[in-house]
Amino acid sequence: MGLLLLEALGALLVLVLIVWWTMFSGRRGGERSGPDEDPPAPPPA
């Protein structure tokens, strides 16, 4: 029983590491915003 819990804990740890790696790896400043991603200008008042 203890071995089964240890294996489940190891699988959970691997899953958490994969999620952490995919969320926080990449560019230091985040993704670059392209010209299409700029917010629209407010309408004239």
Structure description:
The protein has about 45 residues and is mainly alpha-helical. It has one helix and no strands. The protein has one helix at about 1-25. The longest helix has 23 residues, at about 1-25. It is rod-shaped, with a radius of gyration of 21 Å. The termini are far apart. About 0% of the residues are buried. The mean pLDDT is about 80. Keywords: Membrane, Transmembrane, Transmembrane helix.
Structural class: mainly alpha
Sheet-strand content, in percent, reads under 5%
Instruction: Report the end-to-end length measured between terminal Cα atoms.
Output: 70 Å
Mean pLDDT across all amino acids: 82
Number of helices: 1
Rg calc: 21 Å
> Helical content, roughly?
40-55%
Query: How many strands?
Result: 0
Shape: rod-shaped
Give the quaternary arrangement of the chains.
Answer: single chain
Uncertain stretches of 5 or more adjacent residues: none
Describe the biggest sheet?
none
Topology order in helix (H) and strand (E) letters: H
Transmembrane segments: 6-24
Keywords: Membrane, Transmembrane, Transmembrane helix
What secondary-structure arrangement, pairings included, does this model have?
Elements: H1 2-24
Transmembrane segments: 6-24
Keywords: Membrane, Transmembrane, Transmembrane helix
Quickly list its features.
51% helix, transmembrane, single chain, membrane, rod-shaped, 45 residues, transmembrane helix, mainly alpha
